[in-house]
């Protein structure tokens, strides 16, 4: 079984996997498996914080949350793929367990994925993901920087060498005024310009 098949099988079995993105290594689980996704926060030793979903394409994202077709599709297609996590309204409260306390919103990403990660997501579908670090520790840009306790607990690891290391820029678009809640690798102005 090759690395991609191994990662897909692990996700299907409800296990966590480590996948590289365009920014840092991510700790991932099936977005549709609430128990598996909850283990991301447990493994990171952090409180119940929101976890974004990652898709291989904007089409896959919209398939997961069809309401994005109403008012968000153009923006998503204009700024993604890219180093952004966008917090969007989630009126049907899909995958609500990923946004504890803010179930009417959902964080979404379509990174410029390394080839192996792209293949995993194209075969498996949408995953819940957060950086593969312990809460408050630096984001890992190499597999060697991922804590051993995380590596020992996951079902698969895809290693593509060193990544840029700056996390995605998080922009909350769920309210009346867009808010940058974490400045990272992406330029927020690109999103603001696309919003018009």
Secondary-structure map with pairings?
Layout: H1 3-12, E1 17-20, E2 25-30, H2 34-44, E3 52-54, H3 58-64, H4 73-79, E4 84-89, E5 105-109, H5 115-124, E6 127-131, H6 148-151, E7 156-157, E8 169-172, E9 179-182, H7 188-195
Parallel strand pairs: 1-7, 3-5, 4-8
Antiparallel strand pairs: 1-2, 2-6, 3-6, 4-5, 8-9
Helix pairs in contact: 1-5
Explain what this protein looks like in three dimensions.
By secondary structure, the protein is an alpha/beta fold. It has one domain (3-195): DHBP synthase (Alpha-Beta Complex). It has helices at residues 3-12, 34-44, 58-64, 73-79, 115-124, 148-151, 188-195; strands at 17-20, 25-30, 52-54, 84-89, 105-109, 127-131, 156-157, 169-172, 179-182. A nine-stranded mixed sheet has the order 7-1-2-6-3-5-4-8-9. Helix 1 (3-12) runs parallel beside helix 5. The longest helix is centred in the N-terminal third of the chain and has 11 residues, at 34-44. The radius of gyration is 15 Å and the shape is globular. 43% of the residues are buried. The model has no long low-confidence stretch (mean pLDDT 97).
| Stretches with pLDDT under 50, minimum 5 residues | none
**Helix tally?**
7
Give the class-level CATH name. Alpha Beta
Q: What's the CATH architecture name?
A: Alpha-Beta Complex
Supply the number of structural domains.
1
Mean pLDDT: 97
Beta-strand residue percentage: 15-25%
Largest sheet: 9 strands, mixed
CATH structural fold name: DHBP synthase
Instruction: Give the overall form.
Output: globular
The H/E string reads HEEHEHHEEHEHEEEH
Distance between the termini: 47 Å
- CATH superfamily, please? DHBP synthase
> Can you give the helix content as a percent range?
25-40%
Major sheet: order of its strands? 7-1-2-6-3-5-4-8-9
The SS-based structural class is alpha/beta
What is the CA-based Rg, rounded?
Answer: 15 Å
